[in-house]
Specification:
about 210 residues, Aspartate Aminotransferase, domain 2, three-stranded parallel beta sheet, binds pyridoxal-5'-phosphate
């Protein structure tokens, strides 16, 4: 390297975030439920006296069956697992009486919601969800640059008739959280079934209620 080159001022520092698309930069991170230890520290409380209702956690502790299965799997940790989850899909398909290819596995259902957004949405396409519905829906849609259509809630729950009216030729996903998080409202199976069967023809192919994400 010549001495002239080495004396050049360093290029202005680049912020790597500037390379991300604007819709990704605009994402506000999802706020997960606060860990009990953090709340105890914050408020000076005993951890044992706190009951956490915010997350899908099991207050009864790890099931002995899950513990045994985890212990049995430890010897295989040096290998990549089967990313397609063949054995688990087969067990789930038998238990629920559905074809194996109808089972989608993810690291939690958030992962499946994000997969659905990546698979079906692009900028210019739309996904519908309700006001006050699960916070991940708008984030998953925004992360792929698609348009989220928020339908006003009815009594804090899903207004399925209004959601049906919001479906357009650009709609690719409709998220229905049932029961809803965070408002706890519940749509009855017959309401969900009526909603699905009222969707435009192509959608009816997937009118199994489990196909409603969330
Ligand atoms: C409606 C809904 N969908 C999905 C999730 C994500 O759950 P997990 O990723 O733990 O399966 C939650 C979590 O609270 C939820 O309330």
């Amino acid at each position: 390297m010549s001495s002239a080159t080495s004396r050049q001022p360093p290029a202005a520092a680049m912020d790597i975030c500037d390379l991300a698309p604007p819709y990704v930069r605009a994402i506000a991170p999802y706020q997960p439920g606060k860990p009990i230890a953090e709340l105890a520290r914050e408020l000076g409380l005993e951890e044992a006296g706190i009951i956490k209702l915010a997350s899908n956690e099991n207050p009864l502790g790890v099931s002995p069956l899950a513990r045994r299965a985890i212990e049995a799997a430890i010897t295989g940790l040096a290998r990549y697992p089967d990313g397609n989850g063949f054995d688990l899909k087969r067990a789930l398909s038998r238990r629920h009486g559905v074809a194996q290819e109808c089972v989608v596995l993810g690291n939690g259902s958030n992962d499946v919601l994000e997969m659905a957004a990546r698979a079906f949405l692009t900028p210019g396409l739309e996904a519908i969800y309700s006001q006050h519905a699960f916070a991940v829906y708008p984030l998953a849609v925004q992360a792929v640059g698609a348009t989220g259509v928020e339908v006003p809630a009815k009594d804090y729950g899903h207004d399925l008739a209004a959601m049906r009216r919001a479906v357009t030729a650009r709609t690719r996903l409709v998220f229905v959280a049932n029961p809803n998080n965070p408002t706890g409202t519940l749509a009855r199976p017959r309401e969900i079934e009526a909603f699905l069967s009222d969707l435009p023809g192509d959608w009816r192919m997937n009118s199994n209620p489990t196909a409603s994400a969330g």
